[in-house]
């Protein structure tokens, strides 16, 4: 499947970066990404932490995505509709990031600094729902 079109669909004037990464054990590699963004550097370990069982630690200590420190805002990873996590980057950037999980992938979308988190969340959840229904 050609995944670049999905990245193009996610990106827009309000978005800064996007990546789609495999989420099955041993397959946590980048399927597609915004070529000029930093999220393409997300590691397998970072993807595993996002899906891990120690959810309290993520709220207390935060996490990194492609080396960028983030604070967890909302944990919906156990959501029946589409598992997701809302994050905020730390530091001067302070951008919204939403991560949604499908059957086989994790979609990560970062909004521009001025983009409302709800806009980022909505875009990712719709894409994840579509991919889940297509058995991805």
UniProtKB/TrEMBL annotation:
Matching Gene3D superfamilies: Dynein light chain 2a, cytoplasmic
SUPFAM superfamilies in the record: Profilin (actin-binding protein)
Highest taxon of source: Eukaryota
Keywords: Acetylation, Actin-binding, Cytoplasm, Cytoskeleton
UniProt-listed GO biological process terms: actin cytoskeleton organization; positive regulation of actin filament bundle assembly; regulation of actin filament polymerization
Gene Ontology molecular function, alphabetical: actin binding
Subcellular location: Cytoplasm, Cytoskeleton
A GO cellular component entry from the record: cytoskeleton
Family the entry assigns: Belongs to the profilin family.
PANTHER family named among the record's database cross-references: PROFILIN
Protein name stated in the entry: Profilin
């Amino acid at each position: 499947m050609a995944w670049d079109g999905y990245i193009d669909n996610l990106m827009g004037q309000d978005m800064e970066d996007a990546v789609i990464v495999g989420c099955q054990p041993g397959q946590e590699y980048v399927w597609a990404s915004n070529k000029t963004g930093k999220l393409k550097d997300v590691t397998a370990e970072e993807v595993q932490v996002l899906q891990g069982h120690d959810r309290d630690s993520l709220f207390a200590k935060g996490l990194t995505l492609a080396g960028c420190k983030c604070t967890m805002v909302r944990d919906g990873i156990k959501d029946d509709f589409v598992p997701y996590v809302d994050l905020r980057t730390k530091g001067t950037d302070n951008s919204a990031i939403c991560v949604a999980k499908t059957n086989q992938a994790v979609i990560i979308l970062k909004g521009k600094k001025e983009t409302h988190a709800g806009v980022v969340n909505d875009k990712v959840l719709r894409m994840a729902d579509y991919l889940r229904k297509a058995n991805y």
